[in-house]
Amino acid sequence: MISLKLTFSIILVQIMKICANEKSFLGVSSFIRKSGALIACFVLLVGCNHDIEWRDGLYQVHWIDEVSNRKLSISVDGEGSLVRRVAPVVVTVGSNERFVVVKQIPEGGSSVAYYYIDKNIDGIYLDQSEVTQGPFTKERFSELQRELDLPGFSKEFE
């Protein structure tokens, strides 16, 4: 992502240099063109932060623009297309060969919810409601961990 932003920035700088040498192009003043290029450069550099904070096969915990958007998704194509499995805000995650487990604090909420996903029944063309089990209370989730041999949590996010 950084290299893409850098490439766009270099292109915009070159456009600005060309604009600086031209007094008017199609009736648009050099000042307006420069301002537009600067605004576009700013948007590219700060407008699309993201990070993948955890990954297990096709599953990943990631956020876009704000850490408070942290969610669990499954990769559809390995190229960045994702389908959400647990909505923000994911605070803890774990997995084993069969299950992914998630602890979540819903956006704007203070309660904690627990979820699990059986990887054996999940698929990229299924909806979140078809594969994500939960929300569960801590007590019910603890029971399910014993009954289904769900994994513990291995990654906590700040």
What is the H/E string? HEEHEEEEEEEHEHE
For the sheet with most strands, the description reads: 5 strands, antiparallel
Count the domains.
2
Shape: globular
Structural class: alpha+beta
Average pLDDT rating? 82
How far apart are the termini?
Answer: 23 Å
Quaternary structure of the protein: single chain
Radius of gyration: 22 Å
Strand order in space, largest sheet: 10-9-8-7-11
Number of strands: 11
Q: Percent of residues in helical segments?
A: 25-40%
Pick out the low-confidence regions: 1-7, 41-45
- Strand fraction equals 25-35%
Secondary structure tally, helices: 4
Report on the architecture of this protein.
Helix 1 (2-21) packs antiparallel against helix 2. This protein has 2 domains: 2-46; 50-156, no CATH class. It is built from 4 helices and 11 strands. 33% of the residues lie in helices and 33% in strands. The radius of gyration is 22 Å and the shape is globular. The chain has 158 residues and is an alpha+beta fold. It has a 5-stranded antiparallel beta sheet. It starts with a helix and ends with a strand. A hairpin with a 6-residue loop joins strand 5 and strand 6.
Give structural attributes.
2 domains; 33% helix; single chain; 5-stranded antiparallel sheet; globular; 11 strands; 158 residues; 4 helices; disordered N terminus
